[in-house]
Predict the 3D structure of the following.
Amino acid sequence: MKIVYLVPGLMPPEEAERRVGLMRQWAAPGTQVDISVVTEGPASIESTYEELMAVPATARLAMEAEAAGYDAAIIGCAGDPGIDAIRELTTHMLVVGPGATSLHAACMLGHRFGVLETDDGMLQSCSEMAFKAGVLPKLASVASIDVPVLEMMAGKDIESHKRKIVEVCRGMMQKDRVDVIVMGCMSMAFMDIAEQIEAEIGIPV
């Protein structure tokens, strides 16, 4: 099995190497995991406009990956930018997005899930994704931690970000009876603190 993680926004090589290293740790034995980063597009994806900007270069990466013999591609953004268009262009390679996939996983882990976004600008698009994925009835809450993507990607102040995430999660649990948390940003997810958050709040993340 050969899987490629397609990064739809610009990313420093050292961060790309760190992320593919984590994915190789998480992958099942015998699975080849590689990463491919666009050479043009937004520095981060924090709006619908930036999602659309990212699609053409990401689509080209996907077609190159299929031609190179990859079995599957993951669109490396929780907004799943361009996934429907990319699926039209690829005929043999499975293409999945972490956004909709995570929402479906959350539905299997609990009854009422909440999504953490980086800022308020992405709250509505999260509800739209849940509707499109057919899981809107189980979406109990969407909240922002108000931390820019590039700040999280820089890898600084992780403890501060973790405290803010825990605080927002507990608020969703208390106010909206959330019993599963979805990280709605891949830079947030790649801080690799989900298990620590789980241990603190007592529900799946």
User: Anything to note?
Assistant: The radius of gyration is 16 Å. The mean pLDDT is 94. The first helix runs from residue 13 to 26. The first strand starts at residue 2 and ends at 7.
